[in-house]
Design brief:
The protein is α+β, with helices and mostly antiparallel strands. Among the domains are: 60 residues, Arc Repressor Mutant, subunit A (Orthogonal Bundle), CATH 1.10.10.10; 91 residues, Roll (SH3 type barrels), CATH 2.30.30; 85 residues, Alpha-Beta Plaits (2-Layer Sandwich). It is built from eleven helices and eleven strands. The strands form three sheets. It has a five-stranded antiparallel β-sheet. Strands 9-10-8-11 form a four-stranded antiparallel β-sheet, with helices on one face. Strands 1-2 form a two-stranded antiparallel sheet. A hairpin with an 8-residue loop joins strand 3 and strand 4. Helix 4 crosses helix 6. The longest helix is centred in the C-terminal third of the chain and has 17 residues. It starts with a helix and ends in a 19-residue tail after the last helix. The mean pLDDT is 84.
């Protein structure tokens, strides 16, 4: 009997007050009735108080006083409950789906049938960490890297930055892994500076024999907060504009915290028209003005001048890309010199 089936069978018996048929047990554990009968005999031989009554009104019952408290969690199962915000897909990517499932089943077994006027939160809340229109995880699976990260050693990683065409090797001190918006990242210090490395662009790694050298007093959560806050709040340039009011919600959805939609009378000059709202986009550099192209003529950039100029250039490039080909010259044809 596999550990998964062992716990599944015990939990199925423990959560029921009335006898359960072997047919129901087979359906719940995903095996045949013959296998269930064999597993029940194994439990009886191992000393578990399993009562099997045959006949029309019979069934299987786990008597009180069993030798094993299945609600006790193994270290791996306790570790799973400490992981916040991961859905089943992400636990599978970590190679820990079985431990997570057993831990939840054990907790559910202790609370099953508990009286109360309200349904448990676990019955009315679920999680799906995938972003909308998610096409699947690419690149390295986190389970492949997790083992070496847990050893607490320095790593040599072969990584390609977004602006580079080829990966390079570098030595990093890993804090751990981050699951954010459907993607996985390695969080590590590079020469004492925190970095996020997307597993989609991490092509190879080699563990060293040297212990990792982290900044004193900095945990994985601290490093993640430092990186994400720094990325989301960095604003080397602020672009102001007037947007058609009907697109305000769309702007918030696309641009997130980078855009501020000002309330009436609070935005910078000029004052928006009756069907407009004033917005401010926080950018790291001028090229991020590209994010405003989807709004077309429904957006007017008012400042700074360099943002207006750059968007004008980008719009001209788009127009040129889709311009109709010019017809050939329909003159009288090539001229010929007069005969001498």
């Amino acid at each position: 009997m596999t550990p998964d089936r062992f716990f599944a069978l015990l939990l199925a018996l423990q959560t029921r007050r009335d006898p359960v048929t072997t047919t129901d047990l087979a359906a719940e554990t995903g095996v045949s009735v013959r296998t269930v009968l064999r597993d029940l005999r194994w439990l009886q031989d191992a000393g578990f108080p399993v009562l099997v009554e045959r006949g029309r009104w019979g069934g299987v019952t786990l008597l009180p006083g069993g030798a094993l408290d299945t609600a006790r969690l193994t270290p791996a199962e306790r570790d799973q409950l400490a992981l916040h915000g991961l859905d089943d897909r992400q636990r599978h990517q970590l190679g820990a789906a079985a431990e997570g499932r057993r831990a939840r089943e054990k907790v559910a077994a202790r609370t099953a049938g508990a009286p109360g006027p309200l349904l448990p939160l676990s019955a009315v809340v679920t999680t799906d960490s995938r972003p909308w229109f998610w096409s699947g995880t690419q690149g390295l699976e986190p389970s492949a890297l997790a083992g070496d990260v847990r050893r607490g050693v320095r790593l040599r990683i072969r990584y390609r930055r977004a602006a580079e065409s080829a990966p390079t090797w570098q030595l990093v001190d890993p804090y751990g892994l981050l699951a954010k918006a459907g993607r996985w990242y390695l969080v590590a210090d590079s020469s004492g500076t925190p970095r996020l490395y997307s597993l989609e662009r991490l092509t190879e790694w080699r563990p060293t024999t040297s212990p990792r050298r982290l900044r004193p007093g900095i945990s994985l959560a601290d490093a993640v907060a430092e990186l994400t806050t720094g990325w989301e709040t960095a604003a080397g340039l602020r672009i102001h504009g007037l947007l058609a009011a009907r697109h305000a919600e769309r702007a918030r959805r696309i641009l997130g915290s980078r855009v501020t939609v000002h309330r009436t009378g609070e935005g910078p000059a000029p004052t928006p028209g009756p069907d407009q709202v004033a917005i401010t986009l926080s950018c790291r550099d001028l090229e991020e003005v590209r994010q405003l192209l989807p709004f077309g003529a429904d957006l007017l950039i008012t400042a700074p001048p360099e943002a207006r100029s750059r968007l004008r250039e980008l719009a001209a490039e788009v127009v040129s890309q889709y311009a109709e080909p010019q017809p050939a010259d329909k003159g009288t044809g090539p001229s010929h010199p007069a005969p001498s």
